[in-house]
Amino acid sequence: MNDKTKLIQFTKEMFKFTSALSTLIGFFIVFFYCIEIHYFPVGITTGDALLFVWAVISFGIIYAVFIYFIYTANSVYFYIGSIRINKFYKKTIIDKLPCGNNKFFILTFGIIAQIFLWIMGWRVDFFSLILITVSQCIMLILYFIGYCAYYDVKFPKKNKINESTESKESTESKESKESKDSKDSKDSKDSKDSKTNKNFYLIIFVLIYISIPLIFGHVGIGFIKISFNLIGIRQNNVVIYIDKQYQTILQSRISDYTKSEKNHYLLMGKLNCSEVCNIDNVNILFTDIGTKILFEIPSHPDKDGNIKALQFELPASAIKGIERKIIYVK
Asked: I need a labelling partner for 262 at 20 to 30 A (CA). Which of 18, 36, 118, 202 fits?
């Protein structure tokens, strides 16, 4: 099996495993998203539940791709570090690389992945370039520690680089081989238990590894918003049409908000009513799941760039239509 085949096989296995764990994490992230918007859906039907599950699965897939980009980008730094370590000890301490031993694949895909992460941190509103970089550095350090533990990497003491040191190293290598041979001579039951424990610790390690961007990068809510936007549960900058019987309630809430803010944080959307009422520049925070809909009318930013919003929670039956602007690129 050549390096290219190994890389493809490794990528498939890692993506499946990471997607499953990311989907599990997605259920918890949705819970925190509901806390953030102060809303939990009610009256969920079977169809709503399926849509919710699909939204969480989409989060798992998107987040798994993000984790793989970090992993691939870090493979470049790991490769450079392994060269320096092997050169320092004048022997091969690290011989297995994250994305196979093909230098072309490591450098090419690693650099592409790193550029993608920089662009995402710089251009996407949900993410911070600094926080993504911090998460990436922590994941690189954690991977190095996990690599040394999994492959039982031992760094020889190096006080002087001379023949006696080399003879010590050769003795240590022989002793390590002998210890390995003695371990191989154990019965099959012990080896199975050891393998089971190793796999268990590996799963715990991967779970901690993929959780780092959620803890230090604060990317979880951002990816849930992206997933919800793709599914249609969350929609930004749309025009909604509302049953006219809610006109008095809407006008009263908007009027109270305007008076309380005293011409600060003026709302971007305006209420217009004829046969039905419509409000433009609306962000829908939660819809299509449950019997209610949650939306907000954001304000214009102040001189410091701060934005407020007026939230409404109405029955889903009150919404008569949603108008979106779609731009097609030729």
From this structure: 36
Query: What does each C-alpha distance from 76 to 25, 50, 105, 210 come to in angstroms?
Result: 28, 40, 10, 19
* 189-222 core/surface letters (b: 16 or more CB in 10 A; e: else): eeeeeeeeeeeeeeeebbeebbebbbebbebbbb
Dist CA 63 CA 56 (whole Å): 10
> What Cα–Cα distance (Å) separates residue 305 from each residue in 65, 273, 301?
32, 31, 5
- Tens-of-pLDDT digits for all 330 residues of the chain? 565 666 667 667 777 777 888 888 888 888 888 998 989 988 888 888 888 888 888 888 889 889 989 999 999 999 899 888 888 888 888 877 776 677 888 889 899 999 999 998 888 877 888 988 999 999 999 999 888 887 788 877 755 444 444 444 455 554 554 454 554 554 455 555 666 676 777 778 888 888 899 888 778 888 888 889 888 899 999 999 999 999 999 999 998 888 887 767 788 888 999 889 999 999 999 998 989 999 999 998 887 778 889 999 999 999 999 998 776 655
Within 10 angstroms of residue 163's Cβ, the number of other Cβ atoms is 8
pTM above 0.85, yes or no: no
- Comparing C-alpha atoms, which of 27, 154, 26 is closest to residue 89? 154
